[in-house]
Write a structure and sequence with these properties.
Layout (H helix, E strand, L loop, with lengths): L9 H7 L6 E5 L4 E2 L4 H11 L4 E5 L18 E5 L5 H5 L25 H12 L5 E4 H6 L4 E3 L4 E3 L2 H5 L3 E3 L4 H12 L13 E5 L8 E3 L3 H6 L1 H12 L9 E6 L11 E5 L8 H8 L6 E2 L12 H4 L2 E3 L1 E2 L10 H5 L4 E2 L2 H12 L10 E3 L10
Parallel strand pairs: 1-3, 1-4, 4-5, 5-8, 10-11, 14-17
Antiparallel strand pairs: 2-13, 6-7, 8-9, 9-12, 11-12, 15-16
Helix pairs in contact: 2-7
Length: 373
């Protein structure tokens, strides 16, 4: 691994001697190579396993050429809306358009589309019809099965069906991303990757799915709010990686008028939590710890200010607050780094040229739970 940003152009690839990327990661955020950003973590984890990963940050969704700048990847595209759901990024709770985007150079708004995962996946599919597309991140994770969309005030199907992606890597995707990459690298077709924890896929053959709990059909969810509430409760009750069941959501009625075969969206059980050593390894990867230097002229990426001199000590939450999706995304089990790992990263922070003498936060996205109760 080189101590440098991952390629964002053909010139970067040529400097590394690459003719082709294994994966191209398309993100709705600007490229920030810091472990507070999911794009950085997943791309660096894949890099550590020997895969060549290129980054296309905030492509112009109105121009097909924007997703072609690194060429056709050997194994597939990874797609994320970024650290935030694109609709939360764009709109306040009163559905008023926000004026600034902290994840864009200069804080400029409008560099990503609404429903970014769907838009990016469709754009990629229009250019590279047969290349595997794996969607991930918070936007895809929370929409992996049928869901109520606050912004349009209606029920929507799984984002797999809306986007045309082949797989969803949901939750914290280190394990599932590596397993998907290794399966594709072994020559397995993406349509046959149905066995990886922490993923969701679609199939027309329910007889190939085993040991599952059947959720209500999508048409029933549209007709009855209570049915949807019960279905979501089943999903929420299966977020534990050790006891969680495989869930199947049918889309039979929805396809009768078109004459197409019925589709089933299958959510495999969640990925197992990372051990302390695995967490330490993730945060010890060679991140550049800042935004790509090409953003300097625009004033940089504002989001870096809040996290550059902070330490992530844990993930997961057993709080189960009704207003928060963290448990549904990261799981209930607290995964913590060792003190040695945190101290080593703290030493790295003190060597940054703009370090001001203090680390202003040590914790995680929870109420600072440190270990399981």
């Amino acid at each position: 691994m080189q101590n440098d940003y991952l390629p964002v152009s053909r010139e970067d690839m040529e400097r590394r001697g690459w003719e082709q990327c294994d994966f191209v990661y398309v993100s709705g955020d600007a490229y920030v190579d810091h472990p507070s950003f999911g794009t950085a973590i997943i791309s660096r984890v894949l890099e550590s396993r020997g895969f060549k990963v290129g980054i296309i940050a905030q492509p112009d969704w109105r121009d097909k050429r924007s997703v072609q700048i690194l060429g056709r990847p050997r194994l597939g595209f990874l797609v994320s809306a970024g650290n935030m759901d694109s609709m939360v990024n764009h709109y306040s709770v009163s559905k008023k358009r926000r004026k600034n985007d902290s994840y864009t150079p200069g804080g400029v708004m409008g560099k990503r589309p609404d429903y970014a995962v769907c838009v990016y996946c469709r754009l990629i599919r229009s250019v590279y019809g047969d290349v595997p597309i794996i969607a991930g991140g918070i936007e895809a994770s929370l929409r992996r099965l049928a869901h109520y969309d606050y912004w349009s005030d209606r029920m929507k199907p799984s984002i797999l069906l809306d986007s045309g992606a082949d797989l969803i890597s949901y939750g914290m995707g280190e394990r599932s991303s590596v397993e998907i990459a290794e399966a594709l690298d072994s020559g397995l077709a993406v349509g046959d990757i149905s066995f990886i924890d922490g993923t969701a896929y679609k199939t027309e053959r329910l007889e190939d799915v085993y040991d599952y709990e059947l959720l209500p059909e999508y048409g029933e969810l549209l007709r009855n709010k209570k049915t949807y509430a019960k279905s979501f409760y089943v999903q929420y009750s299966n977020t534990d990686p050790f006891s969680g069941k495989r869930l199947v959501e049918p889309y039979r009625d929805s396809f009768r008028e078109t004459g197409a075969s019925p589709v089933f969206v299958v959510q495999n059980p969640p990925s197992k939590p990372l051990t302390t050593q695995e967490m330490d390894d993730v945060y010890a990867l060679p991140y550049m710890r800042s935004y790509h230097p090409s953003y300097e002229a625009a004033g940089g990426v504002p989001a870096i200010r809040e996290i550059k001199f902070s330490l992530i000590s844990c993930r997961g939450c057993f709080g189960a607050c009704s207003f928060c999706a963290l448990t549904f995304h990261q799981g209930r089990i607290i995964q913590a780094r060792s003190h040695e790992s945190l101290l080593e990263e703290a030493r790295l922070l003190t060597q940054e040229p703009d370090f001001k003498g203090y680390i202003h936060d040590v914790g995680g996205p929870t109420a600072n739970f440190r270990f399981p109760a």
